[in-house]
Each structure stands twice: as structure tokens, then as C-alpha cells.
Amino acid sequence: MKVILSVNAGSSSVKVSVYRAEFGQDPVQLAEAQISGLTAPPAKLDYTRGDTTVSKDKEIDTKTISQKDAFDQLVETLTSDKDLPELSSRDDIGIVCHRIVHGGDHTKPRLISEKTYHSLEQLNDLAPLHNANSLGIVHACIRDLPGARNVACFDSQFHSSLPPHIRTYPIDQKIAKSNHLRKYGFHGLSYAFITRQAAQFLGKNVEDVNLIALHLGSGASACAIKGGQSWDTSMGLTPLAGLPGATRSGSVDPSLVFHYASDVGKLSPASTKDLHISRAEEILNKESGWKALTGTTNFGVIASQYSSDPKMALAFDLFVDRISAFIGSYYVSLKGQVDALVFAGGIGEKSDALRRAVVEQVGCLGFGIDESVNKKKIGGVVEDLTKEGARHRVLVCATDEQFEMARSCALDREFW
């Protein structure tokens, strides 16, 4: 038996899930702890052990806290819990799996060696909101948890099946190949989980299922899944392409940013010795999206004020329009052979208003939603929202990236 920690470092939060695992079997979750609000203090701690809520929105007594600081506090919280005997000290940790957003050409999880670590550092500029934070925690684990094996699980690995005509950009191919400029796609850990769970729910083998999946959160994307593999996805070389998000623009005219400001090619003051961020990247990644349109990054607020605030209505309608456009495109790409449209992610799982608006927009394709079921709180891992008589199923899936990472480690002998 091994204790596996799944670490998910976002741009403003760090989440750690604890699993008990036997080789070759699905892991069993023991606890989960998260510190959020790192970019908008005060940071807050949530901690659950099984079905028990130990802490909820507990304020962290510090003005500023980094991802590495947050991770250290989370491990301290877990190891000091007397009701979690499997993890009484840091020495009990056998495997730490890390969500690495941009994995370049990696097609499967990798044991992190010094060589792997430095190769991942080279990708930091392509996912500036995530990779550097994740690698900072990896470095801390290598230093502070010498008895644990560190494994990189890549958000891009699920999309390694993208066909050449979809992953290729129409630019000089010599330059494209030498600079690794192609569509990579992200949210792959989520899509891998969604694909397996949806196939199981539909009573099909994974390799026989075709889906249009939506991971909708502060970062949002869409994915066409053909025969259980990624066929197309909305994000590209970086997570910026495709759908808008809380602070991201999503796809815009490539020339737009040059008309936005005169200094967009210069380095941002937020750049460091190891991480180079241009003003253009900063504007499109951190100063756009719903925040720019409404002043809030909370989509629940946007949806609730739709009828009373034109700014909120604009952001909501724009999001629905962009999502629907990808659904239509992927429906054609899959030639109408679609087993289900699947909503996932924080917004996809919680916003019945968004699900209703999107399904109404794409209803001409044969999707229909049962509003009485749609309004209910989602209980299981997969729920069926399909309206009676609809040609295609509509599902919602409580996705679990941490479980997906732990499962991949539990099933691979290399990591044991």
C-alpha cells in the first residue's frame, strides 16, 4: 500500500488530495485540502476527510502566500490530523503526482528526474499562469520529501492523438517544428476522466464512445472525443486559445492586441529571471475575459444578474455563443455521430442557467435538456439531463483531475 498525494496548483489556488492505493487498483480518496484566494487575500483553507468537513473557508493568517507556501501548509494540515493515521508524517508519502499544464510532446505521465524537470522548465513561457507554480512545488517536494517519487501528469497528454490536419498551424513548417509551434490542448486530465466515466454510464467501451465535452470553469475549453480519443480541442499552443474565461480573452483576431496598446511587445513588470511574460500575454491572460466585461470573475454572479445588468447579460450571452459555436463545429467534425454532450468543470457542473441556454442554442442538432432534472443539484459522478425524445444525450459529469492523476500512478509499475 502507498499513500499518493495528487497536487493541483492553479493560478490562485493549490489543492491536495490524499489517496490510499494498491498497485493495479483504483485508488481510494482519504482526504482533500485546498487553499484558495492566493491572488486575492485573505487566502482560505478548506479541508475534508471522507464525508467530514474539518475546515471551511478558514482564513490563513498572512497577507501574502505563494503556491509553495500554500502546499507546505496543506501538508502540515494533513500530517497533523490525528484522524488521518495513514499520513501521520511526511515519510508516509510514497508518490506525489503533479498536474503540469503544458507537457509539450509528452504523451504519458513521467517520473520526474533532474533531466525531466529542466525540460519542463523550458515550457514555462507557454503556460505562464500554471507551469511555473507547479514546478515550484515539484522542486519543494524533491527537497523536502526525499522518500517520495514525484510524477508529472500532463494536461496536454490526452490530446497527443490530435490528427496532423487539426494540430498544425498554417505557418512555415520548418519554424513551427523547430520552435514546437502547434496545437497541444489542455484540460486533458479532466477529459480523460470524463471519457471513461461517460462511456461507463452509457454502457459502452471507451474506444467506442464519441463525445462533445465541455470543461467550463475560470479556464474553459471544449473537446471533440472520437473513439475515446481527443479528435479536436479549443485550446491551442497555450491555454489562451478558444473559449473566454474569468480573465482570459479566448480566441481573438491575432492583430487585436497590437491595436490595444503600444507596449504589448515589451516584457511585463511581472516577468522574472526565469519567466518571461510580455504585456500582450498579460493583457490577454490576466486582464480580459469576464473580469474585463463585468468587473467580476465569479460566473455565478454573472448568471444571477443576467436580467438586471446589461454587462452581465453581455458576458453570459457571449460565453453561450462561443460554446455553441464549438459544439456546432465539433458536431460536423464528428459527422453527427455523437453519443452525448457532456458538461463539466465548476461552471458546467453548477450553472443550470448556462446548461439550459447552451442546449437551447444547439437544440437544432438534436440535443434537448429536461429542465426539471437540470435544476436539481447534481448528486452522482454522471447525471443524465436528456429531454425525453431528444436525439442525443446531455450529461453532466463531476470531473476529478486529482483522481485521474492518482489512478494513472496506481496503474503504472514504473512509479512503484
From TrEMBL:
Q: Which GO terms describe its biological process?
A: acetate metabolic process; acetyl-CoA biosynthetic process
- Pathway entry: Metabolic intermediate biosynthesis; acetyl-CoA biosynthesis; acetyl-CoA from acetate: step 1/2
Cofactor names: Mg(2+)
> Which E.C. number(s) belong to this protein?
2.7.2.1
Q: Report the InterPro entries cross-referenced here.
A: Ac/propionate_kinase, Aliphatic_acid_kin_short-chain, Aliphatic_acid_kinase_CS, ATPase_NBD
TM annotation in the entry: none
Ordered alphabetically, the record's keywords are: ATP-binding, Kinase, Magnesium, Metal-binding, Nucleotide-binding, Transferase
What does the record give under GO molecular function? Answer: acetate kinase activity; ATP binding; magnesium ion binding
For this protein, the record's PANTHER family field holds:
ACETATE KINASE (PTHR21060), ACETATE KINASE-RELATED (PTHR21060:SF15)
What protein name is recorded for this chain?
Probable acetate kinase
Species this protein is from: Echria macrotheca
